[in-house]
Amino acid sequence: MQRTKPSLFSRLVLRVALVLAGGAAVLMTAAWLYARAAADEAYDRLLQGAAIQILDSLVIEDGKIAVNLPPSAFELLGLAPRDRIFYRVIAPDGKTLTGYDDLAASTDKEHSLNGLLLETSRYRGQPVRLVQTSRAISDPSIGGWAHVLIAQTTEARQALTTELTTRALILVMIMSLLALAGTVLAVRYSLRPLDALGATLRRRDSQDLTPLAVDVPRELAPFVDSINHFMRRLDERLKLLQRFIADSAHQIRTPLTALSAQVSLIDEEALSEANRRHLSRVRNRTTELARFTTQLLNHAMVIHRFDSAQLSPLDLTDVARKAFRAAVPITIDPDTVVSFEAPDETLTILGDGLSLREAIVNIIDNSLRHGTLSKLEVRVTKRGDFGLVEVEDDGPGIPPADWSHVTQRFVSSKSGEGSSGLGFAIASEVAGALRGALSFREKTPDRGFTVVLELPLLRRENA
């Protein structure tokens, strides 16, 4: 049993989606790193500007350093209203001129003599960004370097990073969705040759085994070549099968006919009673073998024809009448009442005439051999959108418990009476191939046992 796997379309789309997801993840990581760097750079400049302004505000009065904190420095830092600011101004002698005494950088103050130093640290349990700068005091009475430290919490930086990252995420998602939609359209368009190839195969008639002549992309050419190679091999096998059936029909029927003829030439008067019984058994077995062989060949013919024959509109009454004439022998008991009834209107079905006639012949023959006592009726009727061929006899019929079994091959309710078990099987297979059914009706006081072959009628607009 072939397992159903995901379609090629879904596989391609899934793989492209995974590639896009991976690319989007890389882009988002890069966007986050860029946003964080941009936020740090923006707020670091504010810290640096504020530190320089405070450093420039240092003045010497009466031989002492005084600090006049400029409001503009804190206005710059006020651009991040959710952040807290910590500062400290250190005199050359190491004393704190103003600010928080415990604010310190992890790097030594000497490293800030050549410029600004920035670092990320923690102060009072909060993550902060800290800037440290220094200035040389030129007054000889003081001498040395003054230092300024300013620390700012990172809430505004994180908010800006989140905002920039979110905008980048939205942009990347939109571009990814557009790329995925474009991929779906591109893949769907690229796979159209597969749909066209499938449609070509579906439209093909069942008996058309000629090579496919379709324009396909280079990647599909080996696939089409394989199909054509398989169809050529299948065509060769079917021709061999047809030849085998024809040869078998000829090679088997010919000796059986000759054997029957030889048996009929035996003079029964010259035989003893025991030998006459043996001859009768031989004659019966020969007749049974000929009939069984014919049914086997007809069954093979029916199977083959529905694989290769073209169905066409048929007059159900005409086919049933021909089957009736072929099935009822001219040597039938004259006391047996045989009748054929048909409606005035034409009942048209879609089927194969030879196979359908063979099915009806088998039903009638089965009734004559195993059911009919003194009456056989064959009727063609209409019921709704179906045409019916009813074969009724006055025999005992088949028990309802056996109805589901007698349509199987080599299963019969008349074992030991020369029944091959193929008659109803052939009729049932023909009915199924024509979207019909084979059914039975129980014997009643007013009606005999009836076998019904039901077939859908061809609608007028489709006729």
TrEMBL record:
CDD domains: HATPase, HisKA. Residues 188-239 form the HAMP domain. It is an enzyme of class 2 (transferase). The keyword Transmembrane applies. Residues 247-459 form the Histidine kinase domain. It comes from the Bacteria. The keyword Transport does not apply. Pfam families: 2CSK_N, HATPase_c, HisKA. GO terms for cellular component: plasma membrane. This is histidine kinase. It comes from Rhizobium glycinendophyticum.
